[in-house]
# Entry
Amino acid sequence: APFPRDEVVQVKVWNRELADDAVVVRDAEGKATAGQVVERGHYWGHNFVVVAFPANDLPAMGYRAYVVEPGTAPVSEGAYVRELGRPVYGLGYVNAQLLNPVLMGNEHLEIIVSGEQGGIVSLVDKETGEQFAMPGAVLGAIEREQEAPHGMTAWQLGAIVGREEPLAPSVLEVLHKGPHLAAVRLSARHKNSDYRLTISLARGSRQINFTLDVNWLERGDPASGVPTLRASFPMLIESGRANFEIPFGSIEREADGEEAPALTWVDLTGTSLFNEEQPLGATLVNDSKYGHQLSDDTIRLTLLRSSYDPDPLPELGAHQIRYGLIPHTTPFSASAAIRAGYAFNHRPIAVNTTVHPGELPPEAAGIEVLTPNVMISAVKKAEDSTGVILRMFETEGRETKAQVRVSPMLAPADGPVVETDLLERPAGNNTASREGDVVSVRLSPFGIATIRIG
# Structure
């Protein structure tokens, strides 16, 4: 990402003896933190361990070297899970407990997940105490809807004639209890399909992550209509305003509940139902879906849809769908939403190697956007030279001087800087300049600029 970020990353370590409570991760300065073992496995005669740890202030479009080794280090409570199960009596020799509901939280948020109801039944912002979840409703509910039979089902949505929640009830399992990653999983079989929904929360994050693994075997036909799967997020929001990501920016549309497209995120922001002075909203990010329905208090994401013409079997099979909810108690920020969507779709990549000497420093940044309301959309080699092309756009509707720090490893510090058009031809009015490793260019409100370095 072209901005520094804090992430809980996971790295797979092969053929090393690492105990669950004795894993240390050291950064480039030698600072140690305890690692959290989240998975163990075996593949073709080799053992592996997956270790989660916080990687804070990762260099923008750069890298940092870490060392994973046996050892211990102090660690504070970050993400956590607490079982709120009710004791079950009358089983005699079995000391049973119902893991339902489960409390999960971190420094910013606290949620309650119910297997009986199939999702989140409470979501509280710790700083303000604001509750996001509607009483009696489920935040993040998986809904299987049935559209009435109609024509051109691949292109047109039909009237909803039935709605069920496949994960209500479901089997609830605690997967990870922290301190860096907390996660639970809801599992159920409904009609012909199997569902597994993992809900997780990482240390220091305001984002609740959802991973839905579904073996979708629902068929649509002219007699029964179109089975459709959606995720629903009803919230205690008053007069929500709906914003959708589009190419090179965002657009506000009427929050009327109609299906509308978006790229990697949508946002619904209004005020608290109980305090009209308090902004309240949520950004929903995802990695593969585009259909959204936003009303004044609910976000819905279309996940799967079994239309039957012209393709009679368009969605059958196994799917993994990732999405995340970012509740906020601040006014809507297009810049923050764009960065959140970008980060969700461009996770840090872990590359394993042995400890060895080298010429590069243990950490370095590549390209960093220094202007909050500017985002980079392209980095590429110039078509007619060895220069580097940067394309960026303005996100908040303000006249802006965009500033970007570019590493000399990517472009020589003494190279020329020229503003170009989209075909990389020099622009008539060159507003690009350079001071040291920082390049600048003027951006009009919601504008696009392209510059060539070198």
Notes: Confidence is low (pLDDT under 50) at residues 90-96. Residues 334-345 form the longest helix (12 residues). The domain at 371-453 is CATH 2.60.40.2220 (Immunoglobulin-like). The two ends are 22 Å apart (CA to CA).
